[in-house]
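Possible regression after last week's pipeline update?

I re-ran a chain I had predicted before the update to compare outputs. Posting the input and the new output here so someone can diff against the archived version. Not blocking, just want to make sure nothing changed silently.
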Amino acid sequence: MIENKGISICGIDYSYPAVNNEAPGLEIFKDLNMNIPEAKVSVILGPSGCGKTTLLNLISGLLTPRCGQISAPGEGGRPPMSVLFQEPRLLPWKSVRANIELVLRRSMGKKEARKTASYYLGLVGLSDYTDYFPSDLSGGMRQRAAIARAFAYPAGIILMDEPFQALDLGLKLSLTALFAKLWIEDSRTAVFVTHDINEAILLGDEIFVLSAAKPSLIVEHISNSIPQSQRSLDSPKSIEIEKQLYHLLS
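New output (post-update):
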């Protein structure tokens, strides 16, 4: 069983380096604090350029804050994290199943990796396409494979960087529902970055809104108490949250 862990962000500062020695660096965060709860989907919502992806990269360890601390309890330091990107990022020379097996080989044997890959591909409706190459699949099917890979990887934390951004509305809603279904069955600690209010409402148990002005601050934290399986965009609670979010982002 995968152990879920929350994430604590305490007083972090981060600036992008100066272009030259005379100009100051661009300050993205200053004394940013937030607690991302265990086994919930926390959405980081804000306009383009507000620092959402930067925050995700700080959580993952790809970037290091100038000061402050980001912690998620785990043996030997930072725990394993699974990442779902804007693009599927599947290796074109490997089959769909082989792409998933590749990320599992360090944590399990060959037979278990194949069984796990097949199981998650089944959950996303790709059982008949396990031996296909990414170029043989539609964009939506490739992203479904990427979702399967993210859940197949044995990590208690999943980080998602606007994974449905490039998709049309119908496909976006379909994959949003698919992710919610997978998460209900396997409730990891998830951090979902988006600028889409509908995605935030449908997926976010906790919604953190970042300011457009730099350094970026959390201007609002909204908790959505409606269970994932019962959420819809036309419910009174969702409409209330939508109005609040539009006001904050306008």
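Follow-up from reviewer: compared with the archived run. The beta strands are 7-16, 26-36, 41-45, 67-71, 81-84, 157-161, 189-194, 206-210, 218-223. Marking as no regression found.
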